[in-house]
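It is time I had a proper look at our fold encoding. Can you supply me with one protein entry, sequence and fold together? It will help me judge whether the discrete encoding reads sensibly. Leave the record below and I will have a look:
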Amino acid sequence: MSADVVLSCFPSRDRSFARFVERRRREVPRGTAASAADLQAGIRRWYPRAVVREQSTLGSLGPPVWYVYRDGSPNLEAHLHWWEEPGAGRIEFDAQARFIAADDRAAEIVGLRPADLIGRSWPDVIPSAAQADEWDWVWRTLNETGRVMSVFDCRLPDGRRRIVEYRNQTTDDPHRFVGYWREIETLDAGPG
């Protein structure tokens, strides 16, 4: 993929998604004629609704621009404060990433009861491949900026996969964090 392609990711506040997109870009060998569709296919490994669109050459004066939409659409600003809306689940976790509190909705989102979520850790909920990609960065960003948001997917007890948006933030207690979850999409179990 050409290094001069400018990637513009949406939602722009999701730095985890932007980092993921950039890593997928670097996986494409330099000098190859990768297309927006190739990049989209790589991104959909973790973000199944992602869409990559090339800017029309008529609208550009500089290098090519590709728009990368995490949720498949540029109309994302309507839910900037989704965690304040009814239907969002709330969790609390400690500095070891163990859940210490969860409301009914948060537990339901990941297919558990609140009592079954307490004492588990984030790595118990997020697939191991995603942990390796993101976990260090999530903790570092959370501690440096006080908040982090993106999406994760989890395997439900019935085998389906659920895409979950999260927003984590620090509290006055440096050993306690609060997070909010909302369901984005549930996918069939599929093969394997």
